[in-house]
Amino acid sequence: MSKFRTVRGMRDFLPEQARTMRYIENLARELAKLYGFKEVITPVVESYDLLAAKSGEEIRQRMYAFKDLGGRKVALRPEFTASIARLVATTLRNEPKPLRLFCAGSLYRYDEPQLGRYREFWQSNFELIGSKNPEADAEILTLTNDLMERLGLKNYWFKVGHMGILRGILGEEGVKEEDQNLIMQRFDKKLWEEGLKILEKLKVSRKCLETIKNLMKIHGTKIEDVLGKVKEKVKDYEVSVSAVENLEEILNLTFESGVKFEVSIEPAFARGLEYYTGIIFEVFTPELEIALSGGGRYDKLIELFGGEPTPAVGVAHGIDRIMLAMEKQKIKPKLPEKPLVVIIPIEEDLKSKALELAIQLRKKGVCTEVEVMRRTATRALQDADRRGATHTVLVAPKELKEGKVVLRDMQLREQKAVDLEKLPNEILDE
Ligand code: HAM
Questions:
Q1: Which CATH number does the domain 340-429 belong to among 1.10.600.10, 3.40.50.10320, 1.10.1740.10, 3.40.50.800?
Q2: Helical axes 163-172 vs 177-188, angle rounded to 10°
Q3: Nearest protein CA to atom 25 of ligand 1, as residue
């Protein structure tokens, strides 16, 4: 036995899983095209300071950070948004807005490994940059719903909130941004009591504490109903009221367009990432306690990185978790069934003919393998069956003399001699 294994938290994807992962990624990529998002590829290694700036304490502490051989403090990216904001603040600075950017790839967080939580994971990520308007937020929600629908996922719902609601109250109370962030991190992890204790220590007013406690009790699916209650509770906090109105406008716009999905509106919902300024949301399915996707509006990040003041909204879909949810819901990737051909030379001196035939079939787009283990025809046929071949082609001297090969349909278990030049069509026309 080898002493080598994958490093804790890292995984190999075997063919079936790899296929599903790429299927999800490609579906997201197709969606990107449909919605006008252009793909960019950013580096896995970025400057630590860039990634750490607004990622929040939780992610900051879990970054794979190190000094490179040139002494630069770098880290493996824990998410894409910082890289995209960097691009927009620098190279894409003068590009006309809006910019719609898509990326997909692996990310790294030193999380405690458990179901759906890995140290290397994959996202497909969408950022819509340059618009402060609710229709941009609605596009991101719609696109996310579209992906879930196309994947065939059922019973999913969006947990929705707005950063402006809590920050509006805390800002009015004079709570400093760092302290606000500490509180948001506790709320993000549902450590409500801990968050409230920080507030008590900061000696915020009774009214502030009561308002936040009241908000924690509110959640529901009916927009008007829930947001009406929230508005009533925060009526003395101007920023919070406009946050609620903004959320209402985004949701109404989205649903007026005819899009349908379940929402759970939670005014005390917070996210660990510190750059969010507007709507925040996550997508859940009943089978998993962890979110499949997460996103929101971040209007200050690009400016913070030295760019022009540029509002933006985006979302990242966790490809690994989507695969888990598909497994739980017994959903198989919808991939076109293509023929798979194995070519078996019956005699050793027909090897080159087998290779030549394989080249011809591949030119016609037929997936073709050649028997390379020098097995007997019977063994090679058994193996082709095990590998899921739809057809085998037996290259035998007698038929070859007549310009033919034996094509065997592995499902019907029938075979016939076929002219060499007709072989690709015989396989493809079936
Ligand atoms: P996030 O909520 O940190 O947001 O991550 C988005 C998704 O990535 C999660 O919902 C989850 O599916 C997946 N994910 C996160 N951590 C792990 C992990 N350790 N193992 C497996 N999957 C994981 C962001 O990353 C933001 N950049 C999203 C965004 C884009 N906001 C605006 N634009």
A1: 3.40.50.800
A2: 140
A3: 79
